[in-house]
Amino acid sequence: AKRNGRQRSVFYEAGLGDATPEKPDPAAELAAALDRGEFTVAYQPLVDLRAGRTIGAEALIRWQHPVDGNRPPDTFIPLAEETGLIMEIGEFVLRDACRQAVRWVQSSSSPADLLVTVNLSARQVTDPTTVETVQAALADTGLEPHRLTLEITETVLMQDRDAAAANLDRLKAVGVRIAIDDFGTGYSSLAYLSRFPLDMLKVAREFVDGLGRDDNADVVTRAIVELARALGLRTVAEGVETDEQHRQLAELGCDFAQGYLFSRPVDAETIMALVAGESAE
Ligand code: C2E
Ligand code: CA
Ligand code: CA
């Protein structure tokens, strides 16, 4: 009620603290948000389809803007990428993810397969400092390298193949794992599957979405799971929303699944309870 009584416009509020309140500079706003601690990390459970339990989570950045509320990553990741601030934001997510995963391992009665996945942007994939950033995050938190999986889209891999390949080889040497995100949706070639040191394929939501309704989606999903199996890679189905999709993916032999059927991305305390609680079953 108090807030409504104020005559100050939202526009003016948004400009508070900026050098030019009439025209906030989005890049400066992003940097300030990082300094002010407006970013947090949400975790979406990763469900082991055979064991039927949560075995980890994907880390997803969240920006709680003081005026606009939650700003989805799609609205600011491209700008962060353009300005280079993604290196700092990415490190923030990486460190939080490693810290949380250590807590899961400590509190779980069956921690053997626990893992956390973190998205890498284009710049992180090709920048040579990323390897040191990852190593430092692991060393400072004490997370075992094999528990960290880095997610990279095929489009990003194909942008600067030589730099990406060199970096991925160095990351593999550190002991972390690599997943292809949104597999099957990018402009890519199957040749890269043998060229890059991969561990996991994430079946894009658009295929999972069509399961049971669209014959092509069924065929493509089956082919991806079989291709992954033949290459010795594990599979994660993304965006699982229905029991029918869940059933079909389990039947196909897909290893892991994520989606609103199981849980939306949740905060650190909630994922902690899910991982620890369900492991104790
Ligand atoms: P993504 O990596 O493909 O992440 C999956 C997105 O799908 C997430 O959206 C997640 O909340 C959403 N999702 C999960 N399950 C379902 C479902 O069952 N149905 C539907 N409709 N959606 C589902 P979010 O968190 O908004 O992230 C969007 C994208 O932003 C991510 O896509 C990723 O590309 C990027 N992103 C998020 N966090 C980071 C980060 O820390 N670093 C980088 N570089 N990119 C990030
Ligand atoms: Ca992802
Ligand atoms: Ca994805």
From TrEMBL:
Domain EAL: from-to ranges: 23-279
Organism: Blastococcus aggregatus
Domain of life of the native organism: Bacteria
Covered residues, full protein: 577 to 857 of 875
Keywords: Membrane, Transmembrane, Transmembrane helix
Protein name, per record: Diguanylate cyclase (GGDEF) domain-containing protein
